[in-house]
Design a protein that fits this description.
This protein has 189 residues and is mainly beta. It has helices spanning 60-74, 169-178, and strands spanning 7-10, 15-18, 24-25, 36-41, 46-54, 84-91, 103-113, 122-133, 138-149, 180-181. It has one domain (7-187): Protein Transport Mog1p, Chain A (3-Layer(aba) Sandwich). GO terms for molecular function: guanyl-nucleotide exchange factor activity; small GTPase binding; sodium channel regulator activity; transmembrane transporter binding.
Length: 189
């Protein structure tokens, strides 16, 4: 897949990332918090969220759990048996484009979530990239929501057009590896 055409500036140009095809900037349609950038693949119901968060001073494994739990809480998925972390892998620093980063983790989890306050529950694979930046008292969390089982009662239940390009975990890993800080003033430094 050719990613040269899809570099996206984030946070007013302070960061950049290479996104897969068919992404839509969600801020064109609804208000997004200042600490987030949100992109969706409207044909597949997938989304990518970049969050600038306060650094969690706990050891890395606890910080991973805390961030995963925060995502579960915001998705309304905290109290169900599907919500779990499946695997955690550290990404070698020489594979990422962010030398300021102390450590980067790729987390794969699963959650059962409902959209727009619906009662129908969908199962999503949740791919997380956690960038630990203690020198800026910041964690950057990149989330890829990938629905794998959409309830027939969900507003998201519709056929995916054959023209749609479904994003993959390889696409997400490319996103993680391409994320760059272009202006550290973003962190108030």
């Amino acid at each position: 897949m050719n990613y040269s055409q899809t570099e996206q500036k984030l946070y007013g140009g302070a960061m950049s990332v290479v996104l897969p095809p068919q992404f839509v900037d969600v801020s064109c349609f609804r208000e997004i918090p200042d600490n987030q950038e949100v992109f969706a693949n409207s044909l597949t119901d997938q989304s990518i969220i970049v969050d600038i968060l306060e650094y969690i001073t706990e050891p890395d494994q606890q910080a991973i759990q805390s961030h995963f739990q925060e995502v579960a809480d915001s998705n309304g998925a905290s109290n169900n048996e599907i919500t779990k972390i499946i695997s955690v892998n550290e990404i070698p620093k020489d594979e990422i484009s962010m030398p300021e980063c102390e450590k980067v983790y790729y987390i794969l989890g699963q959650q059962q979530v409902a959209k727009y306050n619906e009662t129908a529950k969908n199962i999503i694979n949740l791919h997380l990239g956690l960038f630990r930046l203690p020198m800026y008292t910041t964690d950057i969390l990149v989330t890829f929501n990938d629905p794998i089982n959409i309830s027939p009662e969900s507003s998201s239940h519709k056929p995916v057009p054959t023209s749609a390009t479904r994003w993959t975990d390889s696409d997400f890993k490319h996103i993680i590896k391409s994320l760059q800080i272009l202006d550290t003033g973003l962190f108030g430094q």
